[in-house]
What does this fold into?
Amino acid sequence: MRRRHRRGPPPWWPAHEPWPPQQSHRFRTGRARFFKRIALLAVVVLMTGVGGAIALVWTAAARFGIVAASPAGALVVIAGAMLGALATAALIVAGGVRLLGRPLAAVMDAAARVADGDYSVRVSDHGAPPLRALARAFNTMTGRLADHDRLRRELMADVAHELRTPLTVVQGRLEGLLDGVYPRDDRQLDELLEETRILSRLIDDLRTLALSEAGTLTLQKEPADLRAVAADAVRAADAEASARGIAIALDAPAGLPMLEVDPVRIREVIGNLLTNAIRHTGGGSITVGVHQQPEAIVIDVRDTGEGMTAEDLAHAFDRFHKGTASRGSGLGLTIARNLVVAHGGAITLASEPGRGTTATVTLPLAMRTSRASS
It folds into this structure.
């Protein structure tokens, strides 16, 4: 397999590191040394075994008088047998190294290309079952690396796009104020302040998303009354909903068991779901329900809005995915899902165009505490 280098380093390659990687020559040299040592060890083991077996047979035959017990004759026989064993071992080892070495060499060459940033490389699936399993595992690994690299590029492009919009608005308004295009009054300052809030929320969302996807998000768990948490989220969203002519109702019975959760993060989950529902519900209603099931506490946010198409529903939890009429960042549902999963729960969506959307969060009762909400 010929090894091909890119003309230049990949975009993520550190600026202070040489390109192509310096370890490539050492890698090839070490690989050749590895196969030579394996072959030599196999020859030595085979010759030792054959020689020992011949010596044992010769000793037994001499003891029972089958052959003359001459030391010189024994040495000649053993030496001849060792030479024959050496030739046989060389042929066997050469065939074995060829049989095992080619698939391993292909994987090693491919690994070196992956180290150079080429995630398109794949190795053929042939040879012994363990080697085929190795090839399949390697191809799966490189496929995932390629997907992660693609997602990283898309994320960087999406982040740049999302940050550019409010920054452009702020810059244009400030230039207009300085040039006298806009009057320097409180209304203009309020609009600028709102754009900075949008930027701040976006940065907070990106930080939460990065921590949750890296598995480093710290949850401050404590016994929490989910009915009270949901009520807080409803109160926070009520003003925006009222301004849009949307009625929000809370359907949560008393006496629900306390769960060991991070109440701030769960409130953030409900808040994101409410924000998403408000954006897609015009003059309708939204109901936030909190109910106990045999093995879980279920929180659902139901709206009577425009609903979602099957395509939007399939990609609703993807980062930066937005419907045609959405004005958000496309991170709210992604963050909600990651926060729920971090709690060991699950979140699902059900929707039909023109018939509203229902988001359902399921938190296992295994997190409950000894106290109950009143």
Q: What stands out?
A: The longest strand covers residues 285-293.
